[in-house]
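Async update (no meeting this week)

Hi team, since we skipped the sync, here's where things stand on the single-chain job. The sequence we agreed to prioritize is pasted below, unchanged from the tracker. I ran it this morning and attached the output directly underneath so nobody has to dig for it. Comments welcome in thread, and please keep replies under the output.
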Amino acid sequence: MVVEIAPLVVPGVPGGPELLIILFIAILLFGANKIPKLARSSGEAIGEFKKGQEKVESELEEMRKAGEYDEDDDDDSGFVDTEPVTSEDDVETETERT
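Output:
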């Protein structure tokens, strides 16, 4: 029986030492006091984005439901065509009248 083991290192994703270096650079750039504020504001922004996305999705779903109709009721018995039937020979142009 052969058991495949999932690799612990995924190519392209930073590992432990790389994450420590990135964290160190972030602390140097923003300072230790501002990093929690940045994380909090980022989390709030993501939450607001998700709320807006859910609101738009629910509105679209309501619009889809409002537009539903029975296919049995789709008859054209009440349709009246008011456009006169003409051919190209019947239509006069300005140059022909003068």
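Quick observations from my side:
Residues 21 and 65 are 52 Å apart (CA to CA).
The chain has a mean pLDDT of 77.
Reply here if anything looks off.
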